[in-house]
Fold:
Amino acid sequence: MAYRIVNKSQLSENVFRIDVEAPLVAQARKAGQFVIVSPEAEAGERIPLTIAGADQEKGTIRLIFQRVGKTTAQMAEIPEGGALGYVAGPLGRPTHIEKFGTVVCVGGGIGVAPLLPIAEAMKDAGNTVVSILGARTKDLLILEEQFTSLSDESIIVTDDGSYGRKALVTEPLQEVCARSPKPDLAVAIGPAIMMKFCCEVTRRYGVPTQVSLNTIMVDGTGMCGGCRVEVGGQTRFVCVDGPEFDGHQVNFDLMMRRMDAYKDLEKRALQQYKDHQCKIGLDRK
Amino acid sequence: MPTHPVDIDMNEQEKYLQELLTKQAQGQLKPKDRYAIKPQDMPAQDAVKRRHAMSEVALGYTETQARLEAMRCLQCANAPCVEGCPVRIRIRDFIGEITKGQYDRALEIIKENSLLPAVCGRVCPQEVQCQERCTVGKKFKDVNMSVSIGRLERYAADLAHGGGQTPAVAPPTGKKVAVIGSGPGGIVVAADTRRAGHEVTLFEAFHKPGGVMVYGIPEFRLPKAIVQEEIDVLKKMGVKIVCNFIVGRTRTIEQLMKEDGFEAVYVGVGAGLPKFMGIEGEHLVGVYSANEYLTRANLMKAYEFGKGADTPIAVSKKVAVLGGGNVAMDAARMAVRLGAEKVYLVYRRSETEMPARIEEVRHAKEEGVIFCTLQNPKRILGNDAGQVVGMECLRYELGEPDESGRRRPVAIGGSEFVMNVDTVIVAIGNGANPLIQQTTPGLEFNQWGNIVVDENCRTSMKGVYAGGDIVLGTATVILAMGQGRIAAQAINTDLAK
Ligand SMILES: Cc1cc2nc3c(=O)[nH]c(=O)nc-3n(C[C@H](O)[C@H](O)[C@H](O)COP(=O)(O)OP(=O)(O)OC[C@H]3O[C@@H](n4cnc5c(N)ncnc54)[C@H](O)[C@@H]3O)c2cc1C
Ligand code: SF4
Ligand code: FES
Structure:
């Protein structure tokens, strides 16, 4: 079966990790790229997910996703051994990796997942990696071990102080930026609002910052323009021009509004999906 | 066959046809008798009911209608209509077969030159191609009086529905051909190279093959089942179809040729990349490219949102569609079907300059689309939540003709006014998708990002051929198909060497 899920685990209440058979994607992918997936072969919604890792020998790619709407809820239901409708990719331009010096990697919530392959590649290229991971609460923190073992220094924060420091990621980020010498590059991936504030901090210290944008997408090949964002006053398509951009140039306010566009409809779809499941008894496991 | 609401009594028509046929058999049918036959109207779904229906609007001729329409053809010795057809279908001859009731023969003749008659009969801009040259139209000095060649083509194609035979395939040559993109060009190349015995793989980025015919042109104009039938024929011929495969990303053209053993590659990836106007407010929520709007609606079946389809689409009350081509008409008519109360079509020039097919303009009007010509947006207005609440427009007048020969629209100073809308759909054309360019060093592109080819559709890279919108810019189904034919021939010739 194509696109089979060969391995599945739950990283936190709503975060799942799956290894999916997609040999060509596993072979071609580079850090920073993403795939378009759908739980169904025909009518399903297409959503972008960053490739969190790959095993070329097994021909699998690793995806980490958070259950938020109907599509991700449906994906979370697919058991190990089951299959996704399809996986298309790898899409987007790979992250530019080179030896910069010190790179500070900031990940918030589910953004920690796409950050991992970038942090790994930065480390492999000979950089000193400082990682800052943030979550709302202890149970939502993911991939801590992987980050601590690869980073030269790692800082954990939670909003409620249930684990690590009680702070937002911007606080340690500011401290790291204030060091001398200051870091050569920051990479921030997480909710749009987090990236926005990270960029405000790094801008003050003149630290170049890359962000990875996870906008709404349809085709992922540049055909629809649904993923457009304003960068440096110009319209850019996240799927072909990105997903990584100079964070200091991104108009986050516009982007956040666009990402909210379908919130109500999504809630409705999720509700309908849940109602439907109750009716057919899917939730009784 | 659906039953047709026709104004004229069917028996009357039948009798009339028989009289004409008898006269013809006696060799007494004169051109003036043919001129006297009224152009046959295409039966269509009721304009009010179809505002809520996705099913096809134009229902197709009855047999009597088809034969009457065919009798209008003068069988001109020089057949000027053929000159107007981009693929030179032997129009006079196939129409002649229809008058005789030899429908299979008619289709055979069409298929000599066109592989997708059911599609072309529906979507070709006949009024600027074959029908523009038709002697009958010339006689009446009205292109609308020309023989309805497209409708007759559709009639012949629809009759064979499902019964079309699978073309024979030559013995295996052991050579591999890759076709990138499953639009009309790609489909033709796949069929023609497979027929020659090559092993053919068709790669498509989307999860369904068919190109613009599937994700762009809506069901109510081109039923998806028709395109699916063509894809099924390819499968029966042994063409391998691989979806969710993005050439340039999943594998590059170089990898396909050097590592995967493809000796010829046809690039038919279409136009892609929608253009925006570059005006204030284009990032507001509720502004779509027509590509996005139509893809959500067609391919992802957003109109069934919540009923199994999961792709959301904005629920719009007042929609402005910007543009005057087929894409704009499709988007406007789709918005009507998705429940919009008011749909405005905003176009810079006047109706005469609209590039859309006449029939689409007529259908759009019948369905209640409000035409706002000689107007153009200046900026899109939003509220605090970033949603569209209106569009500021300017009025235009027509000035001197520009390079394209069309009169240039000139803004009237101080004519600003606000149009009350919650959704704006931009349908002002597409640029070339940069993906192949970014990932294929050595392939020559022009300044607009279109692939450069010679008259045989060969590119600057040996073994690589291209055609359709990625070469021509935004073109038509028939032009893409025609280039596919040429490219396939070049591939077959080159591989035989
Ligand atoms: C809404 C709309 C209405 C139209 N109406 C008409 C009409 O009435 N009459 C008419 O004649 N023409 C019409 N056209 C234009 C016509 O559809 C196109 O000119 C024609 O389809 C172009 O064909 P093509 O072979 O170039 O490929 P396309 O149909 O453009 O298909 C290209 C395919 O390639 C795929 N692809 C792209 N990149 C890659 C990649 N890297 N790897 C793999 N696959 C890839 C795409 O997903 C797509 O499926 C319309 C277009 C639109 C959008
Ligand atoms: S030009 Fe018109 S009348 Fe003459 S052969 Fe062609 S379709 Fe018939
Ligand atoms: S997702 Fe359609 S253009 Fe980027």
